[in-house]
Amino acid sequence: MSEAEQIPASASEAAASAVLDALNATDSNGTEALNATAKFVASPEGTALAYGSLVFMALLPIFFGALRSVTCSKSKNAADMPETITSRDAARFPIIASCTLFGLYLFFKVFSQEYINLLLSVYFFVLGVLALSHTMSPLMSRVFPASFPNKQYQLLFTQGSGESKEEIVNYEFDTKNLVCLLISSVVGVWYLLKKHWIANNLFGLAFALNGVELLHLNNVSTGCILLGGLFIYDVFWVFGTNVMVTVAKSFEAPIKLVFPQDLLEKGLEASNFAMLGLGDIVIPGIFIALLLRFDVSLNKNSRTYFYSSFLAYIFGLGLTIFVMHTFKHAQPALLYLVPACVGFPVIIALFKGELTEMFRYEESSEETKEEATESEKKDQ
């Protein structure tokens, strides 16, 4: 999507852009999903701990990101407005992701891997700090006491003067946001200097949660187009070429969740990791979040489609681990996640007689809702 190339003007926009960029590279990392280092033979306990931890970490941003997406869709704050993915965006996304993946492959073949990863580290340091800060912000609002002197600030950058003055940047923040930014910066420096797997996971979780929260599919049909296209994309680049594996092994950035399989033997200094790409979290996650918003729109105090798709994601991820562990070969996780996450809710909707209503559901922006309300008032 073109929005991925824009320079973010606020923390939430930065988070969305970070995830979009991450997705282009994440699916390039998806081939290494849950893949262990070949030379290391993990113990059964270490393997179970690593896979279990990856599944748990994958569920966190999907669950909480989906809940926050409901609030985000109702927000009138420009800084927190979601980025809507249309059918055209969804159809183009696999092509853009493929071009990005192959471009990275050529870069790693032509240029020094060390310098490329240095540039990527700096880039993701900035975006990671902003994403983590945005993720922590609601939590900090609850942690700080009511008596805390929370001062308001505004960063305003304009062009021109008088009537022709145009706002370029208008970002409002407070003292709590500054505290979040400070804590996130400490994590960022830790990641930049040590590349520690815990710092990597903190950034990865922040990217994933912001992606699920801020990237909205406008309807179920768009979700099916996006997931279907990336299903083909993932299978082709995993089984058809060695491009994805090469990029995944060369790419050093917090666009994946990792967990050491030798943690029990080496502690926090462990170095043999199982991995899960963020694309395998965010892509199904934004579809699951859409189904939660559809549940809310039904006004039935039921979350049937959300919980069914959430359980389907657990099933699909578990199946990915089982197949990979059985055949000892990296698997495209979307091969199993897409049919599960789409199929389960559709079957339930078919039995409940709500399939037509599900596919007719259209999520409109807050501006569209306001215009519709004003139009109704005029008609009355």
Describe the structure.
This protein has 380 residues and is mainly alpha-helical. The protein is built from 14 helices and six strands. The strands form three sheets. The protein has a two-stranded parallel sheet with strand order 1-4. α4 runs antiparallel to α5 (175-194), α10 packs parallel to α12 and α11 (304-327) packs antiparallel against α12. The longest helix has 31 residues, at 113-143. The model is unreliable at 1-38 and 365-380 (pLDDT under 50).
* Secondary-structure element pattern, one letter each: HHEHHEEHHEHHEHEHHHHH
- The residue ranges in which pLDDT falls below 50 over 5 or more consecutive positions are 1-38, 365-380
Alpha-carbon distance between the termini? 40 Å
* Shape type: globular
Number of helices: 14
Q: State the helical fraction.
A: 55-70%
GO molecular function: aspartic endopeptidase activity, intramembrane cleaving
GO biological process, one term: signal peptide processing
Protein name: Histocompatibility minor 13
Subcellular location: Endoplasmic reticulum membrane; Membrane
